[in-house]
Design goal:
Helix content: 25-40%
Structural class: alpha+beta
Number of domains: 4
Number of helices: 17
Number of strands: 17
Length: about 600
C-alpha cells in the first residue's frame, strides 16, 4: 500500500513500510549550496500493520502518529560545533548496562536531558562550596624493602608467562637452538636494563668492554646471553594471533599479558582525593601505525597513553591509544569524551573525588554524568563544547591584562556548571562542576617590562601525569631494538619502578620517616636492580684470563708503578716469562715490563 503526502517543501512517499523523504529545493542557488535558512517539514506517518518478507512485524510500525522532522543547517553554525554535537548526541537514547566504580548502574542514574542549541549562561561572582571528600587511605605501619614494592606490582605469573613465551618463540625460530631461559635470568635481564637506565652509556655493549666496564652489569650476565634474551623476548604466542580484519584482532596483542597484569595491580591501589587524566607519550620514531604526534609534549613522537593518576603521579589506570575509540557497550555515548566513562569507571562513587582533565576529555555531558555519581570535575574546555556561551573576545582580555577573568553559570539536568575564562599568557577557558573563580589570590608574576601583582584563579592540584612523565624521563631505559613492542615493554617496566617508588614514598610519609632517610628514585631503582641480580642467584663464574694488562701509554709512563710484596702469588705479565713475578739482582721482570 502506498501513501503520498505533499506540501510546498517536501514530498513523503510511504511504500510498504519504506518511507522516502524528498526535499524540494527548486532552482534557488542559496538552497542548493546550503546557505538558506533552516526549513522544517512535518510528515505524519500513519500506522502500518504490514509484515516484511520474513513474516516479522516491522518495529517501525508499532507506534502511531510518529512525527519526523527534516532540518537543514544554518550558516552560523561552525563545522566544529556540528561535528561535536553529532558525537555527543549519538547513542544515548538507549544505553545498555554499565557499571561504575562502586558497582552501581550508570544508566540508572543518568537520564539524557533534552539538548538545546544553546544553554542559558548567567554571570556569577559567588564562591561554590567545595564538596568534602569522604574517603580514607589505609595507613602503613612499616616500610617494606624496595624490591618488595616492585615484585608486588610485577606478579610471578606475568614473569612465568614471559619465560614460556620467550622459550617458545626461540624454538619456533630454530628448534635446534632452544634458549632455555629461567625466571632468575629474566629478573637479571630486567635488573641490567635498570642499571643501564641509571648509568646511561650510549651503547649496551660498552657495559662489558674493558674501558667502560660496569661490574654490576658484567658480573651478572654475559653480554651474549643478555643479547640473546633481548632478541627472543616475547609475551604472546604468535601462532595463535588473530589476523588483521578478524573481530578478535588486537593491535597490542604482543604486550597484552603484561598490560593486563599491571592494570590488575594498579586498579587495586587505594586512590587519593585529587585525580587527573592526561596523555603520555612513549618516545618512538620507528614506523608503526600507532605512532602519534603531539607538539605540546617534550617527546613529540611516540605511542600515546591515557593515564589516570593522582596529584603525586601515582598511576591507577592507563590505556594505550590504538586508534579511533568506538562507543563503549553499556555506557552513554557522549562524543569525544566517551572513553572517559569507561576509563574512570574504577573511581569509587559517592565519596566526592576531584577529577582534573584537559580539553581533549572535558565536555558538558561528561561533567553532568560524573557529577550525578558524586565525582566532581574541572578541566580546560574547547569553546565549541559550550553552546550559547559568549565571553569577551581574546583581544579584549589582552587589553585588560594578565589576571582578567569572567565567570558564567548554567544548570544542566539538575547539575550546576561554572565556566571561567581568564587571561594568563593567553586566554584559557575552564569548565567545572565544583570549582569557581572566587576567591582570588594575589600572586607575583614576572612581566617582560615590569614585575606586577595580578589576580589569579585559585590553584588546583593537577599535573600528576606530567610529574610522572618527568620521573620516568629521569632514568629512562634507552635500548635500541628492531621490535616495536620492546619500547612499550621497557616503558612499562620503568613505569612499574616509578609506581613502586611512589608507593614507598607514601609509606614513608605514613611512618614519619625523615626526608634525608628516604631513598631517591635512582637509589631506589639501583636497590631493586641489585636485589633482582643477587637474590637467590649464584654469582657468574669468570672464565678465561683473570685480568688484562694496562694499555701501552699507561704501561710505559714510568709513574706510580712500584712492586708490592703480597702473599698471594700471581702470574708474571712480562712476555716470554712464566711463573711468578721475579725481582732479583740478575733478573727484574717488573723493570723490564715497564720499559719499551
Amino acid at each position: 500500500m502506498t501513501h503520498v503526502y505533499i506540501n510546498s517543501k517536501c514530498i513523503c512517499v510511504i511504500f510498504d513500510s519504506l518511507k522516502i523523504n524528498v526535499l524540494i529545493q527548486g532552482m534557488n542557488p542559496n538552497v542548493f549550496y546550503g546557505k538558506a535558512k533552516t526549513y522544517k517539514a512535518q510528515v505524519a506517518m500513519p500506522p502500518d500493520d504490514s509484515e516484511n518478507e520474513d513474516g516479522e512485524i516491522n518495529s517501525d510500525a508499532e507506534e502511531e502518529g510518529v512525527v519526523e522532522s527534516l532540518q537543514g543547517e544554518s550558516e552560523d553554525e561552525s563545522e566544529d560545533e556540528v561535528e561535536d554535537e553529532d558525537e555527543e548526541t549519538s547513542g544515548v537514547d538507549s544505553p545498555q548496562e554499565g557499571q561504575h566504580g562502586d558497582g552501581s548502574n550508570i544508566v540508572d542514574w543518568f537520564r539524557p536531558y533534552q539538548r538545546e542549541k544553546n544553554l542559558n549562561w548567567r554571570t556569577r561572582r559567588t564562591m561554590l562550596p567545595v564538596p568534602q571528600w569522604k574517603g580514607t587511605l589505609p595507613k602503613a605501619t612499616y616500610v617494606k624493602h624496595p624490591v618488595q614494592y616492585f615484585q608486588g606490582l610485577l606478579s610471578r605469573s606475568c614473569i612465568q608467562n614471559m619465560i614460556e613465551q620467550t622459550n617458545l618463540y626461540a624454538i619456533q625460530l630454530d628448534p635446534n637452538k632452544p634458549l632455555k631461559v629461567t625466571a632468575a635470568e629474566i629478573e637479571q635481564f630486567f635488573a641490567i636494563c635498570f642499571y643501564m637506565s641509571i648509568f646511561g652509556l650510549p651503547g649496551t655493549r660498552m657495559y662489558w668492554k674493558f674501558a667502560t666496564r660496569v661490574d654490576c652489569v658484567a658480573d651478572t650476565m654475559s653480554m651474549h646471553r643478555w643479547e640473546a634474551i633481548k632478541h627472543y623476548l616475547h609475551l604472546s604466542d604468535n601462532s595463535i594471533q588473530p589476523p588483521v580484519g578478524d573481530p578478535a584482532y588486537y593491535k597490542l596483542y604482543k604486550v597484552r599479558p603484561l598490560l593486563t597484569s599491571l592494570l590488575e595491580k594498579f586498579n587495586e591501589i587505594p586512590m587519593e582525593e585529587h585525580l587527573c587524566v592526561d596523555e603520555q607519550i612513549v618516545p618512538f620514531k620507528g614506523k608503526h601505525p600507532m605512532k602519534q604526534y603531539n607538539p605540546k609534549k617534550p617527546k613529540r613522537w611516540g605511542y600515546k597513553v591515557f593515564v589516570l593518576s593522582d596529584s603525586r603521579g601515582l598511576v591507577y589506570n592507563f590505556e594505550i591509544y590504538t586508534g579511533k575509540i568506538p562507543p563503549c557497550d553499556g555506557l552513554p555515548d557522549i562524543g569525544a569524551s566517551r572513553n572517559m566513562l569507561s576509563f574512570t569507571s574504577i573511581i569509587p562513587g559517592n565519596i566526592s573525588h576531584k577529577l582534573y582533565c584537559d580539553n581533549w576529555f572535558t565536555s558538558v555531558d561528561l561533567q553532568v554524568i560524573e557529577a550525578k555519581h558524586k565525582i566532581h570535575c574541572v578541566g580546560t574546555v574547547r569553546a565549541n563544547r559550550l553552546p550559547g556561551l559568549n565571553f569577551a573576545t581574546d583581544n579584549e582580555f589582552k587589553k585588560r591584562g594578565r589576571g582578567a577573568f569572567e565567570e558564567r553559570e548554567t544548570l544542566v539536568n539538575g547539575v550546576s556548571l561554572r565556566a571561567v575564562k581568564w587571561f594568563d599568557n593567553r586566554p584559557v577557558t575552564l569548565l567545572s562542576s565544583f570549582a569557581s573563580a572566587n576567591p582570588t589570590t594575589a600572586v607575583e608574576r614576572w612581566d617582560k617590562k615590569k614585575k606586577t601583582t595580578v589576580e589569579e584563579w585559585g590553584g588546583v592540584e593537577w599535573g600528576g601525569v606530567d610529574l610522572l612523565d618527568s620521573l620516568i624521563a629521569l632514568y629512562r631505559t634507552k635500548i635500541r631494538s628492531r621490535k616495536w613492542y620492546h619500547r612499550l615493554v621497557f616503558h612499562m617496566l620503568n613505569l612499574t619502578v616509578v609506581e613502586a617508588w611512589l608507593l614507598y614514598r607514601r609509606d614513608c610519609r605514613d611512618c614519619s620517616i625523615l626526608l634525608k632517610d628516604v631513598l631517591s628514585l635512582a637509589e631506589f631503582k639501583a636497590e631493586v636492580a641489585s636485589c633482582l641480580c643477587m637474590e637467590g642467584k649464584a654469582t657468574l663464574k669468570r672464565k678465561g684470563r683473570l685480568s688484562l694488562g694496562p694499555c701501552g701509554i699507561i704501561r710505559y709512563d714510568q709513574t706510580g708503578h712500584w712492586p708490592v710484596w703480597v702473599e698471594k702469588k700471581g702470574r708474571c705479565k712480562f712476555p716470554n716469562c712464566s711463573g711468578i713475578v721475579k725481582v732479583h739482582a740478575d733478573r727484574n721482570c717488573f723493570l723490564n715490563f715497564h720499559k719499551e
